[in-house]
Task: structure prediction
Amino acid sequence: MPRGAAGRRYAKALFLLASEASQVPTVRAELDALAALLAENRELANVLLQPLYPVEQRRGVLQGIAEKVSAGPLIRKFYQVLIDHRRLIDFAGIRDEFARLADEQNGVKRAQVRSARPLTDAQVERLKRTLGARFGGDVALEVTVEPELLGGVVAQVGDLVFDGSLRTQLRQLRASLASGQ
Result:
């Protein structure tokens, strides 16, 4: 099974269990806490994600982390399942899919926004309102900076892309001039 598919399957299973226990926000926060630890500590990530270390050692390290961040029993069991099934390598995808499912349950749409330069808080809020009005609900933005856009933004919500970048506008102008229109 491809990695992405496995991650989605595990995330969906965890989401269903968390939903039944009314713990979706808690589990999401616990997944985010582990992700932050892995991002901050490369050695820890290597121990947990590399199969070079014995399963028992990785299980012990993860159990210690779970205790330190006061993770609940559901997420502790889930971490053990990931280690036992050698799926901890899919953790980032699992976390992202869990977040997507939680947002979907709450009526929140996710938008990937690429901008030529960092957006101000006011610009982010205006973009959220505009996209929220277009899609009928709250929108969570994931903003990345791509200087090669030259100016403007590109926003993607699901399969729909709004391209207001200067690079695209220049490309369209060039095509228009080349065709004589």
The mean pLDDT is 88.
